[in-house]
Automatic annotation (TrEMBL):
<feature type="transmembrane region" description="Helical">
    <location>
        <begin position="150"/>
        <end position="172"/>
    </location>
</feature>
<protein>
    <submittedName>
        <fullName>DUF401 family protein</fullName>
    </submittedName>
</protein>
<dbReference type="Pfam" id="PF04165">
    <property type="entry name" value="DUF401"/>
</dbReference>
<feature type="transmembrane region" description="Helical">
    <location>
        <begin position="66"/>
        <end position="84"/>
    </location>
</feature>
<keyword id="KW-0812">Transmembrane</keyword>
<feature type="transmembrane region" description="Helical">
    <location>
        <begin position="179"/>
        <end position="198"/>
    </location>
</feature>
<feature type="transmembrane region" description="Helical">
    <location>
        <begin position="255"/>
        <end position="277"/>
    </location>
</feature>
<keyword id="KW-1133">Transmembrane helix</keyword>
<feature type="transmembrane region" description="Helical">
    <location>
        <begin position="6"/>
        <end position="24"/>
    </location>
</feature>
<feature type="transmembrane region" description="Helical">
    <location>
        <begin position="368"/>
        <end position="397"/>
    </location>
</feature>
<feature type="transmembrane region" description="Helical">
    <location>
        <begin position="228"/>
        <end position="248"/>
    </location>
</feature>
<feature type="transmembrane region" description="Helical">
    <location>
        <begin position="409"/>
        <end position="427"/>
    </location>
</feature>
<feature type="transmembrane region" description="Helical">
    <location>
        <begin position="324"/>
        <end position="348"/>
    </location>
</feature>
<dbReference type="InterPro" id="IPR007294">
    <property type="entry name" value="DUF401"/>
</dbReference>
<keyword id="KW-0472">Membrane</keyword>
<feature type="transmembrane region" description="Helical">
    <location>
        <begin position="31"/>
        <end position="54"/>
    </location>
</feature>
<feature type="transmembrane region" description="Helical">
    <location>
        <begin position="105"/>
        <end position="130"/>
    </location>
</feature>
Length: 428
């Protein structure tokens, strides 16, 4: 019995720290503060004193990786806010709607397109579009909510503007192409799963979709003009990152991402002169921006406390690698994702632990397969979470029953999770 307690002690300490984090998230004290409390508790439980913990935290916030990541996430939020506030996102939707002929495609297209522009609670931005597209179709509000929620998130594991992807790249020291070349099946899997459960003829018949949406004039030039900031951000970030890696490997690739995002923000400002410098002052004072920056601060402090306290080494010393790997690659990402309802939470809270376990076991060559597994597990937790802000806001907008609507996403989420496990065994 004593030997079992000794073996379980490090895991119990880690579990207690995560329970503190999850409790903080549930009590809505703020994601950053919840992660920070969990990290401090873990440091204390593993023998670090208050002064070493404080010193580790200060040093964590002077790293280049942290500064670049804070700049990137800040610019993404500024770009999203500028496109929304100026009405450019809406104009882009209108410019592209004339190219759509299939009723089912219209139901998918607008939430998927809005999904290219990461923003907290972004599903509520596409909800009015789903309502407009389907107002003469025989579809329940619950179905409208599910369609909006599911297809809004089809890009989240591959799109380089999502903070979860950016944070994964920073923590694992990967380039975007290295990660996306393995996670790309997530998007077709979500599209196919969404079609099967929500859109196939057996679910939505031809009679339900007989009323077409009035077409607007097709204009490629208008679509290109309104979508130019997104093109600059995406193509510029990927192109500059690749160029830096090829021709100047000593230069941090994040320079390219920051430059592309800054250029995209300037493009929006030039296209919408009414925004002015006053817009920048307003967006820089927004609570949501600084809340996200505080989360990134907490994640980097947590990561370095984890390393300084020797948490991973202690877990590996007293237990087999399989137990540590399962906890860090599958169970904890799913649990944190489900409780927090946001990708940044499970990436920031569990990936440092996973990467540390892999390093301690000499399995660095298996980093990407385990990252893929943890990403699919964590994202499944996020999508199945009843407190996911997009889910709550969508159900609120369509005035539908939360529980009945939530049950509709459980089966496709489990299919998605199974596909992630299958990919892991294919890659490992």
């Amino acid at each position: 019995m004593d030997s079992l307690l000794v073996t379980l002690a490090p895991f119990l300490k880690v579990l207690f720290s995560f329970l503190l984090m999850l409790a903080g998230m549930r009590l809505r004290i703020g994601l950053g503060l919840a992660i920070l409390i969990g990290g401090v508790a873990m440091g204390l439980l593993f023998g670090m004193g208050p002064l070493p913990i404080a010193k580790t935290g200060v040093l964590a916030l002077t790293q280049d990786k942290f500064l670049f990541l804070a700049a990137i996430v800040g610019l993404i939020l500024i770009l999203s806010d500028a496109m929304e506030r100026s009405g450019q996102s809406k104009r882009l939707m209108e410019a592209l709607s004339g190219f759509l002929t299939s009723p089912r495609l219209r139901l998918v297209f607008f939430p998927a397109l809005i999904g290219l522009l990461p923003m907290p609670g972004g599903a509520v931005f596409s909800a009015p579009m789903i309502k407009t597209v389907s107002e003469d179709m025989r579809i329940t509000n619950s179905d409208r909510a599910v369609l909006n929620y599911w297809f809004r998130h089809v890009w989240e594991l591959i799109w380089p503007l999502y903070p979860g992807i950016i944070l994964t790249l920073a923590l694992a020291d990967l380039q975007i192409i290295d990660l996306v070349s393995y996670t790309w099946p997530a998007t077709p899997i979500m599209l196919l799963t969404g079609w099967f459960f929500f859109l196939r003829p057996g679910v939505l018949g031809a009679k339900d979709l007989t009323v077409p949406m009035p077409l607007t004039t097709r204009s490629k030039s208008a679509a290109l003009r309104e979508g130019l900031p997104l093109l600059i951000a995406i193509v510029g970030a990927i192109g500059l990152e690749t160029s830096i890696a090829t021709f100047a490997p000593s230069v941090p690739f994040e320079f390219g991402v920051v430059a592309a995002l800054a250029a995209a923000v300037i493009c929006v400002m030039v296209q919408n002169t009414q925004l002015g410098l006053n817009f920048l002052r307003q967006v820089l004072s927004k609570r949501s921006l600084w809340s996200m920056i505080s989360v990134i601060c907490a994640i980097f402090v947590f990561k370095d406390i984890l390393q300084a306290a020797g948490v991973v080494q202690e877990m590996a010393r007293v237990a087999g690698g399989d137990a540590a790997l399962f906890a860090s690659a599958a169970f904890l990402p799913f649990l944190v994702g489900m409780v927090a309802g946001i990708n940044v939470a499970f990436v920031g809270a569990t990936f440092p632990l996973l990467l540390g376990v892999l390093s301690s076991l000499g399995m660095q060559d298996q980093t990407i397969p385990y990252i893929v597994l943890a990403t699919f597990c964590g994202f499944t937790g996020v999508m199945i979470s009843p407190i996911h802000i997009c889910f709550i806001l969508t159900c609120e907008y369509f005035q539908c029953d939360l529980g009945r609507t939530w049950r509709k996403v459980v089966a496709p989420c489990l299919i998605f999770l199974a596909s992630g496990v299958a990919l892991f065994f294919l890659y490992v």
